[in-house]
Specification:
The structure holds 2 protein chains of 2 kinds. Chain A is of the alpha/beta class. In chain A, about 30% of the residues lie in helices and about 25% in strands. Chain A folds into 2 domains: about 190 residues, Rossmann fold (3-Layer(aba) Sandwich), CATH 3.40.50.300; about 70 residues, no CATH class. In chain A, strand 7, helix 7 and strand 8 form a beta-alpha-beta unit. Chain A is globular. Chain B is mostly helical. The radius of gyration of chain B is 22 Å and the shape is elongated. In chain B, helix 4 packs antiparallel against helix 5, helix 5 packs across helix 7 and helix 6 packs across helix 7. Classes of the chains: A alpha/beta, B mainly alpha. At the A-B interface, helix 2, helix 3 and helix 6 of A face helix 8 and helix 9 of B.
Chain lengths: ~325, ~280
């Protein structure tokens, strides 16, 4: 499988009142064609900022360095005009909040058609046909009628289908889905995930799925990167992630999932909170919360070690890899 | 039809709309409604009190005050539309672009100029600009328009600031839309209702400001009938013919009230939270 997205040493900084703060600090990963990569981590770990860096949609005080290679282009070096041609056409995005991701003043079909008109050389009538076809493809009943309906007339699940239709409208090579099911209830979540899976199988597009729901990861993903405090702490295939998680943070995440059938008075949690981006510890960023902390952890940052089945940023595995 | 019914429920807004409609009819059909030429002087009937021939009486040059009030509606309508039009042409694009792009120009140039302009009482500002440009209707309109522009810059910018962070704007960017398309196709339509309300309310102030400038001799020049200039001329006759001030004053009062009621009505109608 060919690699379609290759992110190397991505550093995204924001200039704030505390000076320059690196929210994403040296992130590396690749996405292969037809693959679903899960990006997991708690709120504020840099998942969304990573995706916005790829899309070039950071707020004005944000700046990315490193390399984001998409096909043969470095997305950090292309002009805004070229980027506009890539957005929606080759890389599309699905947002977290279907309730607010559609413009309330335009009919939903027109919004899908608009995306089509932007990138494909088609007439308005053809764009409309394409939009209706996409609405059907995402399993909307009465697609012709829904074309003319406004976002407030649709439920959350239907709006998310519309967003998926919009993202798929130009057959993108990569879809970035930023917590696409977080705002939906559980039954609808399952439908939307099934739909995304279908889309992937039919079109062979790759998906970068950002989530903090490990259940979703196990359903959807081929490979997973776990992020903590702006860094990748573990990277592995999905089976290994669940069978033998290595990084203490990943282990903590696994243990904090409630399990049916086991009796526990309290759920396990990871004590403490993510360090603030401008007050990162000098050693391992997870050290203040880690149950297996060693003296070296507080002095030196561990590198991302290559283990047999995975990569892991932890001193515990230093000897194993040597 | 549904929208019309919803607006009908705004109560006083309908009264305002009727008043404005009356004003527009008056201005359009002035030549039909007015029994006399507003500028013809009749020295046989000077300073007549209101009677069956001259409903509102006559002024010191024998001109029919009713006819002049009717023709004055034309000036008032023009004043309302032109001054607010100028203000919107200046204010809305500036508000859109500064709000969307932010940065130095927004924060330190445009907004500080707006602050400075808004620190002046509005009429003083319009008076100063008028005095620089010279008397006359066109200059008065420009002065009032410039004076109103800061309000439109602020209200538009405020809307854009909150809209630019909406997810559907991010979504529009993520499908590769150009900034201009986002600004005019997606942000402006969503920002429109407070701008419309502001425009209606500004029209009331525009009429008042035109009347004030004309009263002070900086607006419409004689003999063109404007309610403000009519008040100015009638003032010197206050002890002899007080009725000559009643009707232009009443006209100003009713029309300004009408625009304000319409503005309030629209506010109620366009805001889903206050819609009945």
């Amino acid at each position: 499988m060919s690699v379609i997205l290759d992110v190397r040493n991505l550093v995204t900084t924001f200039s704030t009142d505390y000076g320059k703060v690196a929210v994403v600090d040296g992130v590396d990963f690749v996405i292969k064609q037809g693959e679903t990569l899960g990006v997991v981590g708690e709120s504020g770990c840099g998942k969304s900022v990573t995706s916005l860096s790829i899309m070039g949609l950071l707020a004005q005080n944000g700046k990315s360095e490193g390399e984001i290679r998409f096909h043969d282009k470095n997305l950090l070096q292309v002009s805004e005009k070229e980027m506009q041609k890539i957005r929606g056409n080759e890389i599309a995005m699905i947002f977290q909040e279907p309730m607010t991701s559609l413009n309330p003043l335009h009919p939903v079909g027109k919004q899908i058609g608009e995306a089509v008109l932007l990138h494909l050389k088609v007439s308005k009538a053809e764009a409309k046909q394409r939009a209706i076809q996409m609405l059907k493809a995402v399993g909307m009943p009465r697609a012709e009628e829904i074309y003319n309906e406004y976002p407030h007339q649709l439920s959350g699940g239907m709006r998310q289908r519309v967003m998926i239709a919009m993202a798929m409208a130009c057959d993108p090579k990569l879809i970035i889905a930023d917590e696409p099911t977080t705002a939906l209830d559980v039954t609808i979540q399952a439908q939307i995930l099934d739909l995304m899976q279908d889309v992937k199988e039919q079109t062979g597009t790759s998906i970068m799925l950002i989530t903090h729901d490990l259940g979703v990861v196990s359903e959807m993903c081929d490979r997973v990167i776990v992020m903590y405090a702006g860094q990748v702490v573990e990277e592995t295939d999905v089976e290994t992630l669940f069978s033998e998680p290595k990084h203490p943070y990943t282990v903590g995440l696994m243990e904090s999932i409630p399990e049916l059938g086991t009796e526990k008075e309290y759920l396990d949690t990871i004590p403490g909170a993510v360090p603030l981006a401008h007050q990162m510890p000098t050693g391992c960023r997870f050290a203040p919360r880690c149950s297996k902390v060693m003296p070296i952890c507080e002095q030196k940052q561990p590198p991302l070690l290559e283990l047999s089945n995975q990569k892991c940023r932890c001193w515990l595995y230093q000897e194993v890899s040597e | 039809m549904k929208n019309w019914k919803l607006f009908m429920r705004s109560g006083m807004g309908v009264v305002g709309a009727i008043i404005i409609l009356g004003l527009i009819l008056c201005a359009t059909f002035a030549s039909v409604i007015a029994p006399y030429d507003p500028n013809v002087q009749d020295y046989n009937s000077i300073l007549l009190e209101p009677n069956s021939e001259h409903w509102f009486g006559t002024d010191d040059l024998g001109r029919d005050i009713f006819s002049r009030v009717v023709y004055g509606a034309q000036i008032s309508i023009k004043a309302a539309i032109v001054s607010v039009g100028i203000a919107m042409i200046i204010g809305v694009p500036i508000g859109l672009f500064t709000g969307y792009y932010r940065g130095f120009w927004d924060e330190w140039v445009v907004m500080r100029v707006v602050d400075a302009m808004q620190a002046f009482p509005f009429l003083i500002l319009a008076l100063a600009i008028s005095a620089v440009l010279g008397a006359g209707f066109g200059n008065a309109m420009l002065a009032i328009g410039i004076g109103f522009a800061p309000a439109f810059i602020r209200i538009t910018r405020g809307q854009v600031l909150s809209l630019r962070n909406m997810e559907y704007i991010h979504a529009a960017k993520s499908v590769g839309m150009k900034d201009s398309r986002i600004i005019f196709g997606h942000i402006l339509p969503n920002a429109l209702s407070p701008i419309i309300i502001q425009a209606t309310l500004a029209m009331a102030s525009g009429i008042l400001a035109e009347a004030s400038l004309s009263y002070l001799g900086l607006g419409v020049q004689p003999p063109t009938p404007s309610w403000g200039s009519m008040l100015n001329q009638a003032q010197s006759l206050l002890s002899v013919a007080p009725y000559a001030t009643y009707y232009p004053g009443l006209a100003i009062f009713v029309v300004v009230l009408g625009f304000n009621l319409l503005g309030d009505g629209l506010q109620q109608y366009l805001n889903p939270r206050t819609r009945k």
